[in-house]
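User: My advisor, Dr. K., asked me to get a structural model of this assembly before our group meeting. I'm new to this, so sorry if the format is off. These are the inputs:
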Amino acid sequence: MERMTECDRGFPPAEYQGRVAALQHRMTLAGLDALLLTTPADVFYVTGFLTRFWESPARPWFVIVPADGDPIAVIPSIGADLMRRTWVTDIRTWDAPHPADDGVSLLAATLREVVPEHGKIGLPMGAETHLRMPLADYGSVLNMVAPRAIVDATAVMHRVREVKSEAEIRKIRNACRVADAAFARVPEFAGAGRPLDEVFRDFQIALLQEGADWVSYVAGGAARGGYGDVISPADARPLQPNDVLMLDTGAVRDGYFCDFNRNFAVGHAEDAARRAHAALFAATETAIAAVRPGMSAAELHRIISGALVAEGATPCAGRLGHGLGLTLTEWPSLTPLDHTLLREDMVLAIEPGVEIAPGRIMVHEENIVIRATHAELLSSRASANLPVLT
Amino acid sequence: MERMTECDRGFPPAEYQGRVAALQHRMTLAGLDALLLTTPADVFYVTGFLTRFWESPARPWFVIVPADGDPIAVIPSIGADLMRRTWVTDIRTWDAPHPADDGVSLLAATLREVVPEHGKIGLPMGAETHLRMPLADYGSVLNMVAPRAIVDATAVMHRVREVKSEAEIRKIRNACRVADAAFARVPEFAGAGRPLDEVFRDFQIALLQEGADWVSYVAGGAARGGYGDVISPADARPLQPNDVLMLDTGAVRDGYFCDFNRNFAVGHAEDAARRAHAALFAATETAIAAVRPGMSAAELHRIISGALVAEGATPCAGRLGHGLGLTLTEWPSLTPLDHTLLREDMVLAIEPGVEIAPGRIMVHEENIVIRATHAELLSSRASANLPVLT
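Assistant: The format is fine. Below is the predicted structure of the whole assembly, which you can bring to the meeting.
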């Protein structure tokens, strides 16, 4: 495919201003005087600060969204240069790592400045979140900002982040195009006799060649009659005739992920695999046709699961899809227990899985965006028939 | 380079048994009845559970090391198949994500089973750690295991993990060899006129071709008279004659990282860049010659910093090196404030940096292992003179 150009990079400040305004609106409704963010995705979302340096666990990074006004970055000085290239202007730094005070007093002072004495600070503490700073330091911050309280703000972040702007959707679509082009090249490097780890390596190379900035996730499996799981790294076992090969990727382009997979039969597609693939394809068609704003995640799960059963297949336990965008997976989870409302411009992975035999599964995945009256595919639709690698 | 073979994969159970015994020894000294681990590196360290699926923030994963006996995995059922392929036999699963109880009651029940009522559970809470589970769920676990206390166990994990076994050192050396081979190929794809983002992409492809399982980190910079920082992703600006180009990588092979960089002059090496490179090279020589077990991280920092000053250079603020292995960077940090004792078989990145002009720096990095009487290079030594890309 043609290389995408630089003009698809980043966002104008208005995009971030809109995000912050949406957060501040929900913060006001929730009675929050500030929001404290610590994870790569949350920090990237409000600032545009994009770096792979999060891979180093050495330093915590903080962004504070006050109830009014622009975000404040409280970060290690090593990141000041890059943060200054974002729209953020209030950047406070310390020399990290600092064993006695790793940003704790600077963070606490900033929170005390921004939040009234009896005010509330929101922090994402709920499902699919974590606090990316040492827990002992968090305890110190709690003490230093008292009597201010720190309360859960998961819903504030989730309700804003889960609805994607058109600019974000464009970026996820670009990431999907990269993966589409790489999946189209799988027959070039996968086939009987090729070790699975070589296939994984070549797939990552293809993703980079097709325009991924980096490849944060590749997984898959290969076995006869279905693979055992969908999260394993590759071993060196050569692909065998009649194997089902699955490759799954989270390729990243400009900070946004795709997350979808493709299945292939090696040499010859056995009946059970073809039937499973057909059921997965049909259930995905049903989900894409049915999904609408106002439906819950649990309802969409029921639709996918029901479609698999109607095809005579046994749905996998566990979720049958999820959100995505700034991370490989985002809430909601398509399970019977997740009653999150699906909303217009949410991006989802529709991911039906079937158990072919005990411990043998096949999984199918597409990325879509929920529009008012239909679902729009972001990945190119898989072929209806299980493709055979010859 | 020749592709490494499958026989370099994984560890025998004895390796993990040794790790757990070392942890249990320190746990006993610290009065801990169990250790609770939640991060990819800590879980991989005691179990061998290696997956890129941590990229999905949706699910927490737990491993408990009891004071006696083998580790217990308390994990989402999606990981059971892969965990069963490790040496761990006690694997307890729940169907995650579960909005009402995402492993909380199973984790608490396991901790209550393993830890006496007035016992202590250790959890890494200190510098360079974080808790990879929702903070609200951690609060619930705290309540459910009471009167058992959860206390900081950073030192227990750090003192054991920081000393590498010969098998681990071999894996880090293998990762370094991958990067060595990729750095040797930089002249093939970097030179005047080539956009920096294309260079980053080709460098990642080269790392994969040379044997990286995946590329968790690439950063760098390119500018005349030194780059602005060392953590930025690439932009599309073409390399210019007289630029200094730096590429830095954390390539991963079998779960272990290398972390070193290389500098290049584009077309022609200006005097200031050549002088800076010579000072960096000399300071690294001095550090490699001087580092010994029993020295502190702060002392090694002083040696590197002093050597730069002796060369007439201005050392960068911030750390001048760090540990590495299971993550891109590990403690200790070579700063004036980190008094961690350097020990035999610790693996370090020696990373002097100099400020050439305000906001213009150059950084040099090698990976070594500290032996009883000398330092052993794991990366191939950079050339003494700044190489020129013609």
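One thing worth pointing out at the meeting: Residues 47 and 88 of chain B are 6 Å apart (CA to CA).

User: Perfect, thanks a lot.
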